[in-house]
Amino acid sequence: MMRNRHYYNSKNQVAAIFPYATFGNAADMAYYTDLEQRTGIPVVVDAAASLGARDGQGNGFGQGSRHAIICSLHATKTMGIGEGGFIYANNPEMIEALRAMGNFGFGQVRHATMPGLNSKLPEIGALLALSGLDKLDAVVEKKCSIERLYYDLLPEFTFQRQHGTRTAYQFLPVRLPARYAPHRRAILERMKQKRIGTSTYFSPHLHEQSYFAANSVAGDLSATEALASSIVSLPLWHEMTPEMVHYVCRGFRAACHAQTA
How, if at all, do strands 85-88 and 106-108 pair? Predict the structure, then answer.
């Protein structure tokens, strides 16, 4: 699942395309490379939660891509260091420019040649990230085993169709069946009473938020609205035990059934 965001320039032309690797999924980057080549519109990939995901060939998501691929290291992500992130691109010229922009725009010594800011990662955060890389594969593989247990225990629910050979879920998104979706708020309240943490990421979706609704153009969003209003994010962390997953699934199923009993 990839969502695309388009940004417009002063002439109301598309200035950039921002595909989003939803919920840590991987995607076929060849499609976006072809799109950029055909249109001349640059592609920047929001891969906030996808560090640790693998593509269809088993490579790290985005490996070898010349596009800017943005990964988050926020505390909620699979490899969280508290805050921060990084940009990957197999594009030396782009990386050189981004480094200058992240250093106050200094393209020359103490001389700003482009727009910039101070985006340097603190050393303690960088050390945590380097240490986390050594454990990343083991953490993601453990989370994948928990993910599969969820699928086995909740066969009547719909889960995201995956691209690639591994998804780096930070939590587990599940879609409520149509009979439960109108009761999502009540379901989440019952889960809270059971002390089970759940959330509704990407709801409200971008065009439901006042700033974007007033400053963007959108076509038919009926599919987006149906998805955004029916997805629940269930807990998923690498130290969960099978007993914890069973407890979450029992509570979730009970919370759903209570709304139609």
Answer: unpaired
Helices 123-153 and 242-258: angle between axes, nearest 10 degrees: 60
Report the chain's C-alpha Rg in angstroms.
20
Strands (E), 94-226: 106-108, 111-112, 158-159, 172-175
Cα–Cα–Cα angle for 259, 147, 204, rounded to 5 degrees: 50
Q: Do 232 and 255 touch, CB atoms closer than 8 A?
A: no
Give one word for 97, left, alpha or beta, with left for phi > 0 and alpha for psi -120 to 50: alpha
Q: How many CB atoms lie within 10 A of CB 96?
A: 11
DSSP state of 120: P
In the chain, pLDDT over 90 holds for what percent of residues? 74
pLDDT of residue 7: 54
Say whether pLDDT at 79 is over 70: yes
Q: Are 9 and 15 in contact (CB under 8 A)?
A: yes
136 dihedral zone (left: phi>0; alpha: psi -120 to 50; beta): alpha
Helices (H) and strands (E) in the chain, counts: 7, 10
The answer to whether the CB of 67 falls within 8 A of the CB of 36 is yes
φ, ψ of residue 200 to 5 degrees: the values are -135, 70
User: Cα 152–156–161 angle (5° rounding)?
Assistant: 75
